[in-house]
Design a protein that fits this description.
about 625 residues; Ferritin; Rossmann fold; two-stranded antiparallel ribbon; 21 helices; about 10% strand
Length: about 625
Amino acid sequence: MDNRSIKKLEADLWESADLLRAESDLTSQEYCMPVLGLLFLRYAYSRFKMVEAEILKNRPVRNGRQMPVEASDFAAKSALFLPLEAQYSYLVNLPENIPSMGLVSVSGQTMASLGEVVNNAMELVEQQSKVLVGVLPKTYTDFSDSLLSELLRIFNNNALDDVGGDVIGRIYEYFLSKFAPAVATDDGMFFTPKSLVKMIVNVLEPTKGTLLDPACGSGGMFIQTGDFVNQAGFESNGQMTFYGQEKADYNAKLCLMNIAVHGLTGKIKSGEAANTFYKDAHSLEGECDYVMANPPFNVDKVKAESAASAGRLPFGVPKENKKKEIGNANYLWISYFYAYLNETGRAGFVMASSATDSQGSDKDIRENLVKTGHVDVMISVGNNFFYTKSLPCSLWFYDKGKSDAIKDKVLFIDARNYYTVVDRTLNEWSEWQLKNLNAIVWLYRGEVDKYKKLLGEYKSTIATLISETEEDGLNAVNDDVFVGGIEVVKKQLKEIKSKAKEAIEASDRKGKKRVQAEWDEKITAVTEIVEIVKEAHWLYSKFGDGEYQDIPGLCKIAYTTNDKKADESDISIEEKGWSLTPGAYVGVAPVEDDGVDFEERMAEIHQELLSLQTESNDLMDIISKNMKEMGL
């Protein structure tokens, strides 16, 4: 199943499940956990069947019969064993009349509803895993049997059997992101946008060791790290040890379910004992190979004395106010992340943009931090990357094991104008944009081989996509992917859209929908090629075959202090008053052609205006009708 089909499956499943939520009396928060619980169960069953098949391949035979699988067989393969009553196929095939079956729960009670049976399934799963005890939802009696039966049916979609467990994990993550706007809390979101998490993981490049997220939310850092390690050809559970702290119990449960559904294991602590401001819950100061986090920004009223007593503040305690409180905890987090690292550790985290240039005691801490030489990369992120807030942010990176060539340098990247628009309120970095930003870091580190490998990936991917189309005019792109290819694909896309318009207008009413669907598919395929070629051109036009250079408005390497500069023309962070704001270093980019076809965009705007005008007229008619009915 290709990426486009998976996206459609995600959307279809969400639309079906969300429609049912709209028809129930449950709030999004009440609905979130049970729905994710069913997806978890579906994924667990998928992995169970896969591992069961592996076990049965070499199963001994006694008296002509193959020995049945046991829980110990699954434990040996780091997989979750599911008793019959917890298997998804069992639940989805239950008859409507549950009371007539005389089913008995693990506590010895007779079950009279489907909700009780599903609750019992969750209990049985928890008995198989200490990590999940008390975590899985057991509120399914809040659902009517008909609603719950329909949800079970939706997630039993046959397509899920074809895509495999990894994609079910991805669908779980998709649902989590869709719930985020409705369930996010006021003191910081539990769900960090995937593109920010991926950027952090890509820059840190975790391979093996201890990873801590002291504000772990729903566990996105762990999931992306697991994917990164697995894609590198290793087994994440064998290579990495995951630790998390999360004050909110609700979010910690989401985290445990999330890592379990992705086949990971971790040690997650929650509640007041895991309040990072006052507790090092896992005693990991100075022990971590990697630290990743998206902590809540600008938290106030942190007790200064308690924070100081809890330690992990190598650069001192931020200034307290008259109430003996720290009015903004950003620099507590910034200090903690550094303190947790071992002598070669790396950290990456999301932080409020204001923290890169804040004054007072924050500036003093920042100066001491810069002087360590361990600040590695700073990236500015624009608005609308979060699901519930539009504020910009920054990504900070530490590296205590920097090479001598960059030990006294910091790479600044201003990516505020580099993103993909998802919709009116949400932006993200596409997969290729993530690769491009990562490529700048590689060149800064002198890892030219990785950059050249990416150029090769662009060529092979584009060639494959072109071969899958029937557009002969695109073949010329393969000879000039990085320079002239962009003009070729733009011209080809314009021609296809023109042909599509003619074909649709020429078709009869009966066949119009079919013709439009055929041309839409062609346009989508070529548009995908255009987007990738555009990103290939963006990267190559700046760094060619692999030589780093400062790009105005995008990236700049600065020295930490004046005495570290190679010559007077270089710039240092000390000169800039210890600011870590990328915009203060990279400057302003020259005005470039944005690549938008003027006539095409004006036609789109005209169509949007006509649509809005029609909607306005309809609303006026409704208002007039209502007023007449009221006698006004």
